TrEMBL record, chain A:
PANTHER family: CHEMOTAXIS PROTEIN CHEA, SENSOR HISTIDINE KINASE CHEA. Residues 251-327 are annotated as: Disordered. The gene is cheA. It holds the Pfam family CheW. Involved in the transmission of sensory signals from the chemoreceptors to the flagellar motors. CheA is autophosphorylated; it can transfer its phosphate group to either CheB or CheY. Residues 273-291 have a biased composition (Low complexity). One of its GO terms (cellular component) is cytoplasm. InterPro entries: Bact_Chemotaxis_CheA, CheA-like_dim, CheA-like_homodim_sf, CheW-like_dom_sf, CheW-lke_dom, HATPase_C_sf, HATPase_dom, His_kinase_dom. This is Chemotaxis protein CheA. GO terms for biological process: chemotaxis.
From TrEMBL, chain B:
PANTHER family: CHEMOTAXIS PROTEIN CHEW, CHEMOTAXIS SENSOR HISTIDINE KINASE-RELATED. SUPFAM superfamilies: CheW-like. GO terms for biological process: chemotaxis; signal transduction. This is Chemotaxis protein CheW. Pfam families: CheW. One of its GO terms (cellular component) is cytosol. InterPro entries: CheW, CheW-like_dom_sf, CheW-lke_dom.
Length: 730, 152
């Protein structure tokens, strides 16, 4: 077994992946119960999730996890049997226990030290909850009795509620060449199959040619297995999960199946194909099947009971135990997808290079080459979209993690907090989701700790004692918007201002608008505030949040209303890999602007530009005034020109409603660009979000329009933000 | 480094910057590339030449002459970019030309005299003499700025 790629580690890894899913189901179920669901199925889901984790953990000898899950399961069983009605206290405990299970799973996975203390405490609390009614039962089924017997689980889990029923299956299994090429061994599969019950394995060698005609790399052999088992069909198929698509597999028969032993597939049962027909021996047609089955040339018998097999075949079993109902999804290593994404990125760059050189060759736009190129571009784009879609994931798992943060932080500051989530199904690129976790955690803590008042204060203000934090995700114009809103007291602007003055961040006599004061929270200096509580203060570390959001190509803004609450809005690109961009020229440099902010292009007349005050200009567009910025000047490429008349201007508009007109020298193209991160470990260029590689191999910078509007032209400390925004607001 | 310390051997890549001779521990050098046009970064410190495309990744390039407060010279085709790796981060150093690779022992290194009036002396880790020429050994960590000292 060691000569293979350590199957145990692989199985273990897949157990932990399944645990993640089960934990998600557990959280969902608990949430539904908490929301007042009376559906017995919900309790069943919770129970089964815990049970499955326990089962898998047992097989791997993760005793701490088994012990805890077992007690948890016992309690849930009481609930399921109607012996216990969970009140809100119990629900809280259930949530805590679920968090703890996920901690244990993680600790086991990372082989980190287990949180024994919490285990003990929660176990005691669970026992308390059980009281007398459960304790006896608890004794007889104590965790010590629970032996890590891999094979045992496979039989009771997927159909727990239905009693075991013996069925007879006929399994036809023909490996394709690829099965061997990927290092799989049919013998292992057959052994595992035999472990499910009484099996008779026949090897069909009718296709086997004489030694002269034998092509060593071609597969000729197929197996017919008669299996009498209590397992259900999905379990049988699970055995072949690793070779899905690498073999021809038919499973017929079942609990009531009258399939006679030794016979081929009955004609009335449609054969199920899991693989493309073998090109060498196209036996996808049903015709040769009965024939091949009826008169096998040589018969190899492999008859083994489960006991004999438990030693070597057994370790493949427990993974099935934890398997959820079959879904038509493929689990793929993220690395493989990353590789694909990178390759597609290279493809896009190459396509840009090709189209540039074809362009320069001066071919007629109607030539075959150009038509072909167009098709190529379309295909590239489709491929890119599809690849991106693979990585898209709903934000649900992220939001679930946040509900845990709310539970923990509200307990720490002794406030009652309810988390509402909306738009859990909103899909965002996996990398974005992962990197959102930290900033969101921080902001949720902020909302709970500083956004919400204490219960007494709330009662005094005529609000319900329990505060509410709302977490929302939605798609808006090619970006994802995530909002964290609390119904607390709102930002205490006087206090914020005073703190900022004390820190020397603003002059004491500065006149700041409400928005400007709110934005003070994001200043780096503000984070050194002394008011650090057991969690984190609002403003404490918000600059870090802002930086991490910016590094994702996102923006964050605050709105706050006194007495009503505070809302943080994060706007993020859907993916970190590609961008629809407008390629423009500025002072001899090539720059890329995100296409979604560009509203229109204008050519400036001499009368269009008005001076607002020395150094700042506005342009009149459709009856309104929009601040005018010369990109070349703002980015320091050139000094102010005498006149902007005749210049080309891009009118851009951001989600927050801010508009600006950017003076550029020329527009090159609209195209998809592959985003390459800038290593800003020692220098972060203001106004620049990322870079991309052009068709000629040169690098072009991708602009961050919001940053530009916020005043890139004056990149000195935090105050530039305020002074420039003033212009934008006027 | 430890096995080098045993034999006391040190290999240096020597190069010229503004007609001065400098060197770097060859272990920190990843590759040497010919000069290509850099894309300037807005409002960057003046020693930042910009970024170039290094096989698909964006590589920041620093003008070593300006970084060392030496007279910066016009770039020409013979200029090279030395790609160095420091704590997992790649940086390009623009130099006039690469001269040689020399092997010396630790004993050949001399601690530079403490001359506070020379602003870039702190980036020189040691001095050595090769063929009667003085070669400065750069302290890469001091040359390549980190977030703490150069953040905008």
């Amino acid at each position: 077994m060691s000569d293979q790629n350590d199957p145990m580690a692989e199985i273990r890894a897949s157990f932990f992946i399944e645990c993640e899913e089960l934990l998600e189901a557990l959280q969902d179920g608990l949430q539904e119960l908490d929301d007042g669901s009376e559906d017995p199925e919900t309790i069943n889901v919770v129970f089964r999730a815990v049970h499955s984790i326990k089962g898998g953990a047992g097989a791997f000898g993760l005793e701490a996890l088994v012990r805890f899950a077992h007690r948890y399961e016992t309690v849930m069983d009481e609930v399921r049997n109607g012996n216990m009605h969970p009140d809100s206290e119990a629900m809280k405990l259930f949530f805590l226990a679920a968090d703890h299970v996920s901690d244990l799973v993680r600790a086991c996975r990372d082989e980190a030290p287990l949180p024994e203390e919490t285990s003990k405490e929660l176990l005691a609390r669970l026992d308390e909850l059980l009281g007398e009614q459960g304790i006896e039962e608890e004794e007889e089924a104590s965790a010590d009795d629970f032996q890590p017997l891999g094979v045992a689980f496979s039989l009771d889990l997927p159909d727990m509620d239905a009693g075991p029923e013996t069925g007879r299956y006929t399994i036809r299994f023909k490996p394709e060449q690829e099965l061997f090429a990927t290092g799989n061994e049919p013998q292992m599969l057959l052994k595992n199959l035999c472990a499910l019950g009484e099996a008779q394995v026949n090897c069909v060698t009718t296709d086997l040619p004489d030694l002269d005609g034998l092509a060593p790399e071609t597969t000729y052999i197929e197996w017919l297995i008669d299996l009498e088992t209590e397992a259900a069909e999905p379990e049988i198929r699970d055995i072949f999960e690793f070779v899905d698509g690498l073999c021809m597999l038919e499973v017929t028969g079942g609990p009531d199946g009258p399939t006679p032993k030794g016979e081929g597939t009955p004609d009335d049962t449609p054969p199920v194909e899991t693989a493309a027909p073998d090109p060498v021996t196209p036996d996808a047609t049903p015709a040769p099947e009965p024939e091949a089955a009826a008169k096998p040339d040589k018969v190899v018998e492999m008859k083994r009971g489960p006991a004999e097999n438990s030693k070597d075949g057994g370790d493949a079993e427990p993974r099935k135990a934890a398997a959820p109902a079959p879904k038509s999804v493929v689990r793929v290593d993220l690395e493989r997808i990353e590789r694909l994404v990178n390759l597609v990125g290279e493809l896009v760059i190459n396509q840009a290079m090709l189209s540039q050189s074809l362009d320069e060759a001066g071919l007629s736009p109607h030539s075959d080459a150009m038509n072909g190129l167009e098709e190529f571009q379309r295909l590239t784009r489709d491929i890119q979209d599809s690849v991106m879609m693979i990585r898209a994931q709903p934000v649900k798992s992220l939001f679930q993690r946040m509900s845990r943060i709310v539970r923990e932080s509200s307990a720490a500051v002794e406030k009652e907090v309810r988390l509402l989530t909306e738009g859990e199904a909103t899909e965002v690129d996996k990398t974005v989701i992962e990197r959102l976790s930290d900033p969101l955690t921080h902001m949720i803590r902020n909302s709970v700790d500083h956004g919400l008042e204490t219960p007494d204060e709330r009662a005094a203000a005529g609000k319900p004692k329990a505060g509410t934090v709302t977490l929302t995700a939605a798609h808006r114009s090619g970006r994802v918007i995530i909002e964290i809103a609390d119904d607390g007291a709102g930002i205490n602007r006087e206090k914020v201002f005073q703190v900022a003055v004390k820190k020397g961040l603003v002059a004491p006599d500065a006149q700041l608008s409400d928005t400007e004061i709110d934005n003070l929270l994001f200043l780096p200096g503000f984070s050194t505030a002394s008011q650090v509580s057991s969690l984190s203060g609002r403003g404490v570390g918000m600059d870090v949040v802002k930086t991490s959001i910016q590094s994702l190509g996102g923006r964050i803004s605050i709105t706050s209303e006194k007495g009503k609450g505070t809302t943080f809005s994060i706007s993020l690109p859907l993916t970190l890999a590609v961008l629809d961009g407008m390629v423009v020229n500025v002072a001899g440099e090539t720059l890329v602007l995100p296409l979604n902010v560009v509203v229109e292009t204008l050519s400036l007349g001499a009368d269009d530009v008005q001076m607002l005050r020395p150094g700042s200009y506005v342009v009149r567009v459709r009856g309104g005034f929009v601040p005018l910025y010369d990109l070349g000047v703002m980015l320091g490429y050139r000094s102010q020109r005498k006149t902007d008349a005749g210049a080309i201007v891009l009118l851009i508009s951001l989600e927050d409603g801010n508009r600006a007109a950017l003076v550029i020298d020329g527009i090159q193209d609209q195209r998809q660009v592959v985003i390459k991160g800038l290593d800003d470990s020692f220098y972060r260029a203001p106004g620049i979000a990322a870079a991309t590689i052009l068709g000629d191999g040169q690098i072009a910078l991708i602009l961050d329009p919001a940053d530009i509007i916020a005043g890139v032209g004056n990149p000195r400390g935090g105050d530039f933000m305020l002074s420039e925004r003033k212009i934008a607001n006027e | 480094m430890s096995d080098q310390a045993q034999t006391n051997d040190l290999e240096l890549l020597t190069f010229r910057v503004a007609d001065q001779e400098y060197s770097l521990d060859i272990m920190s050098v990843r590759e040497i590339r010919g000069w290509t046009r850099t894309t300037p970064m807005p409002h960057a410190p003046d020693f930042m030449r910009g970024v170039i495309n290094l096989r698909g990744t964006v590589l920041p390039v620093m003008d070593l002459a300006r970084r060392l407060n030496l007279a910066s010279q016009e770039t020409n085709d013979r200029n090279v970019i030395i790609v160095v790796k420091l704590q997992g981060t790649l940086t390009g150093l623009l130099v006039d030309a690469v001269s040689d690779i020399v092997a010396i022992t630790e004993d050949d290194l001399q601690i530079p005299p403490d001359i506070s009036s020379e602003p870039h002396m702190s980036v020189v880790r040691a001095l050595t003499v090769i063929d009667d020429r003085m070669i400065r050994v750069l302290d890469l960590a001091a040359v390549v700025p980190t977030t703490s000292d150069e953040a905008a």
